[in-house]
Records
---
Amino acid sequence: MIADMHCHVVYGVDDGSKDWEMTKQMLQKAVENDVRILCCTSHAIPARGPFPWDTYLQHMQEMGEYINSEGLPLTLYTGCEIMYTEEAARMARRGELPTLGQSRYVLVEFMPITDWGQITVAAREFSNHGLKMVCAHVERYACLHEDMDRLYELHEDYGVICQMNASTILRSHGLFGDKFAKKALKAGLIDLAASDSHNVTERACNLKACYEMLRKDYGSEMASSLLEDMPQQILHR
């Protein structure tokens, strides 16, 4: 049962789905990709103001009604992608930001030029507030490219879940594929794959192809771990 733990399918709240029609198309696209669990992780930017809970939940309800009416084999979970700030951990702990499926896991992103120290500070802050950090699209951060051992440190020293986008994983295939992604996958340093889908064109759900490539290049166990087992661990803890 493939789960997409990072997607921007809720319309009207961020730079993802632009309207209700696109949201319906994205839900259909997820089903076509064998996705059965969808965590709706709209952007949350604490520095810009509160999370738009009312709009988000209203549109989530609309999505649920559409799924039921169409008989789509999808289960929706709440969540958000938090742009890290000093207030983020406290806000999540107070319930001002949605965690992944109301679990203690939070999806957190950083600016690409964020230094290593800030990522470790963030991990400690969330941990101190009883939360566990899922680091969104780890392939984007220059400090991790500079020293891949830092991915290991995130695992072992901070208990961070490292998420990589499916599009990056797909680019790792072949002799001249993405070297960072290939090396990280081979070393077992990636815990979770997700679409980070924003639409149905250039940033569409591509998890079926991702699953098949992982299975072919790294084995069925890794494919299942990144797209089925880890999401279940997150949602049921």
Note: The chain has ten helices and seven strands.
---
Amino acid sequence: MLKISHLLFSLAMLATPLAATALDVEKAKEVYGPCAACHGQFGEGGKKGEYPRIAGQHARYTMEQLKNFQSQHRLNLPMFPYTKERELPDEDMKLLAEWLAGIELPTRMPTFRGDEDALTRLKMVEKVMIVPRAEGNVEAGGKVYQENCATCHGKLGKGRGMFPMIAGQYSNYLKKQIDAYLRAERPHEEETAAEGILYELSADDVQNILAYLTTLQNPDESTAKPVSAGD
């Protein structure tokens, strides 16, 4: 029954674009207020991955996860109080998800013009998000990723629709979620040929994939390019 309800919800979301109307940015910031304590002022997350980056994430995916937290289909006790209907109605979830999707976090330190005041410079630097390079074999990780993960998460890890962006996400957080999937503590929603692929990967494969993903956070870097599974 849960799978049917989630399928219906997903179809409804596809039929109703989240960005159908102009965003009320001030309202979105107000709704986001309680979230900033954990997820950061700009949705950059915090505590080295204890709280995930949510800025730039696909709106449909964010909306679905908020609904999952609310229904406790995805069990996360700290999130439940913030997503109960009286705290976060559907219209606020949609607004929040779309606003977060539009936030861009630079992956390079800013170049100052020289006319900025100290506060402006501080804010420019605070918005920069650079995920530290994870240990592992980047080349091997790229091949495994492109062969097993790119179909859903994209060649550059940007995701699509209901599949989340994972490039630019904290490596520690990604590893924690992979472990949760493997322990069946977090349900896999997708019913595709890729379902269960994590069970086929070795611990070294996973670590190498994480290392590879850290090279994808900045598309301008020479290392930030898809690796063909056949290379």
Note: The chain has a mean pLDDT of 85.
---
Amino acid sequence: MNQIAIITPVPDVIDTLITNSILRKAVERNVVKFHIVNLRQFGLGNYRQIDDAPFGGGSGMVMMAEPLIKAIEHTTGLIGRSEDAQVIYPSPQGETWSQKSASQTSKLKKLIVICGHYKGIDERVIDRYGIHEYSLGDFVVTSGEIPAMVMVDSMVRLIPGALNTLDSALTDTFTYDLLDHPHYTRPREIEGLRVPNVLLSGHHKEIKTWKQEQREQRTKGRRPDLWKIYKKKN
């Protein structure tokens, strides 16, 4: 069973996302166990302070090192210390998260995710734990819970047993270095719009060829950057 701990000052947000998504199914199937750690419990003083003004001046606040260190140490006690345990932190300064990142992370049996806020977290925490920083893209959001759960969802669905069939996850967009092909379901026709005949033919080889052609056409038209990479590999 994979163990994922999420450190956050707003645990209700994480709990809601888990309860109302495929992640709940993964928990029920004993594929993954979540530990939601409330950072406020490790805050300083009567007000459970977790942030302070940055040294050197500047606007905004920075999440303090002491509460985070205490939270991480508490969390490693929950999931158990292990060489394969990893701490990740969604950050605009990080490596771009990808399907490859999700696949690699899904193989970790123990994972700690830090949800950042404000201007980010004290750099000494990153240095101390060798934290891996990942970014969803070149933009900034106000809450670290959203990118954290995007990353968690994308990796958990790749763990065997999380979905009804792993084949579904293994044929998604980016799995072949290409965008996915179009999908259709019943009815065969609606308001004059028909399902492509090849998908109704029963000829598996022709269907496979059609799907590959559609993947390539979509990628070439919509993501020329991915298409260049794909052509170099093939």
Note: Residues 141 and 232 are 34 Å apart (CA to CA).
